[in-house]
Amino acid sequence: MSAPAPVDEASQEEHRAERSAPSLWRVGLQRYAILIVFAALVVGFGVATPSTFMSLGNLSNILGSQAVLFILVMAVILPTVMGDFVDLSLGSSLGLSAMTLAVLNVQHGWPVLLACLAAIGAAIVVGLVNVFFVVYFDNDPFIVTLGTMTIVQGVIYIVSGNNSVVIVSVHLSNWIFSNEFLSVPLEFYYGLALFLVVWYVLSFTPTGQKALVIGQSREVARLTGVRVNRMRAWAYILGAAIAAIAGIAYAGTNGTVDPGAGSALILPAYAAVFLGATAIKPGRINPLGALIAVYFLATGTAGLELLGAQSYYQQIFYGAALVAAVTIPKVTRDRIFKRRRSA
Amino acid sequence: MPVTDSGTPDDSDKRVSLHEHSAPGEQAVAPQPEAAPAVEVRGISKDFGSNRALDAVDLRIGHGEVLGLLGQNGSGKSTLVKVLAGVYDPEPGGRLFVGGEEVPLPLAPGQASEIGLSFVYQNLALAPGLSVLENLTLGQRVGGGVRSWSPINWIAEHRSGAAVLDRYDVKLDLDRLTGELAPVDQARLAIVRAAEDLRRYRTRSGYKHSVLVLDEPTVFLPEEDVERLFELIRTVVAEGAAVLFISHDLAAVRAITDRVVVLRDGRVVGEEVTADIHEQELVDLIVGAPARLAESAPAVAVPVEDQRAVALTLAAMESAGHSIAVAEGEDVTVGHLIAERVRDVSFEIGAGEILGVAGLIGSGAEELPYLLFGARPADSGTLRLGAETWDVVALSPQRSVRGRIALVPADRGAQGLSQSLTLWENIVMLVEDEHYRGGIFHRGELVDLAREAVDRFLIRPPRAHNTMSTFSGGNQQKALLAKWLLARPRLLLLHEPTQGVDVGARRDIYRFVKSAAALHHMAVLWVTTDFGELAEVCDRVIVITQGRHSATLAGEELTEETISAAALRQTREDR
Prior knowledge:
By secondary structure, chain A is mainly alpha-helical. Helix content of chain A is about 75%, strand content about 0%.
């Protein structure tokens, strides 16, 4: 770094003085905007299709069907909160984990539990490779994980011989999908437990606070003595491990694993994380916001389906909600600041 | 050597001039002040609030002249350049003449290039990822419309680029990445580009005036390369441009300029022909009062006024269960520190002492805080703090924080404080671990601690939950200081701690640091180019020139003038 640029005191002070803190009302509106729209959505669908949408079965469906995505969201959130905005390979880590589990269990006769551990181990290897190239060599995470994602996808095809693998173990699907508690599949509670752990660590420990500083201002974190690279490395590794858990849940839910598993989930997971960053703590990636976002999106798509829309409309709803959520706060802010900017 | 009026407008583009260069310092042809000057400003003033940065400045630059503009930081040099560049609007009443014709002020941004002014700033404005050729032609690609869609003939571009470099006798590979060039070659490329803009302007408009403004071009260059830059400047002058050369570097100014103008506190205090003035006279003009007749040092305020703020940092530590002996501080010894721009610097700081480090930009002084914190790599050196000795090479920010060394960086916006987090989160950043007990993060305690710090460090507005970016520079700086003082450092490293800070906050910061040093027996290293500040707050000042510790000032000799003189005079003498 070169010497500091001369700072013009007067103009800087002038500039600062004009900016004032946003009003409580506006902050509150932004913070709970998704919840408000969420509530409106529920009321709207409830009125439109009262018998089906407001049923317990639908609630159970919404909660249960999103469990795999929700677990993947917890994986995505770890690198993202530290400013590594993309780990594309998490989707293929999910697929790799599911396929490893299926192949070992079905074709090699490994016990389910052992196969699960191997699945997690395989994903952690992917995480370590990412760490090596992104953190150690300081590469752009988008480019590196684009590469590792493609490689892992290729490995999945090799391991599976480009075939879907049907899982025979009843235990696995029982403990993940078939058994229910309060008429919601168990996997939802696994996701909830993971969420509670991630939420606690990120929001209620100094470690989470440090992760936040890394994400917001990496250089400040470094000069405050935070072990920036070590924490980023852990985020990639733990993220991969959690993605592996999502893969196990995927295998248990579907009963068969196809080679493309997971690749369709990674973008919705990022959509939920970024949508969640506009809620609860606006501008910050936060687990609670992500939780709300996942079920907001799920409710929207479920409602649309009940109204007769095809399931692939889900994609349009996801994309539109994401773009709207990040743009609307800017539009309102720019309207307030426009005069000052042009001045 | 032909200096004046060689670049007439009807010079063919194909002409490639090959010059013999005269020996350095031998400016053969004296300027002719009688002819209409290339550029003349009269009565330019500029106010920032109640602060007058420029006060009725008159300046004329003759054709083919190299005019040096000298002055300390804050003397108004940059403000004048920014008025000429159309960045600042001057106060009404100032007039600007270009080639004898008046141009109405203020200039619009970008208008400068249309009246024959071209600027090369310290940062050069080159794109390091583009090739030399691409950077050279970058200026011609700006602008929209149909022209931006017309095809580029790269072969022809290559040929004309080579001709341009030839014209200025600069040998560079047009296909090299600009970022790979040596610093001096980058500077030369930027100058060629600017000079070429001027030449095109002269050809296009038929005027013969044009001025190249060079703002601190030699700061980061090794001594041996400066002469190569000067050769280029002489060629540019021979081509027909005048040069306004702004620098701290007296040796450079004496080597290249025909005349010098000295600014102090926004006024022109001297205008001399370079060959007729001695270095000592120049130093006296720049710093004001004759440096040799230093008056007694200003009375140093007893640092007890703000014990409350400092006491808070002790209380913070006690509440966190620390019981550190406060009675005695520790001495700091830095031995044989060597790094890229630092050549074997050694010094000591006593417990409770504030040691100032003075040095011009590029002298290496500004590296010291970052090297001693482990934020930038050093080549060798030792740091002794009390009984512990560290190898500076092995220092890292983590170790420094654990060893209770604090760094307040100059770039508070990007390095000191996280602008998107709240005030309280920034202030407690270093102590939050102590408030995590039994699996519970006591945020309430931290917010209370931050509120107390806000109260005692006089941070306004006192809203702990506001986002950092909404606070003014002075209040941000106080928050940054509070953040580090809460960690109760043994050694506090400050770099430009009052840069961009209003006067009131500056006083507060002086008091806080002084009382912290006195009450905590903390060693403080204070690095700034504001020498008046060093004279006011420091117990002792060391001067760094060309990466070497060249002088130590204390007691009676500690005045702004003596520090400036020491920092200026020793520049480039000890080769």
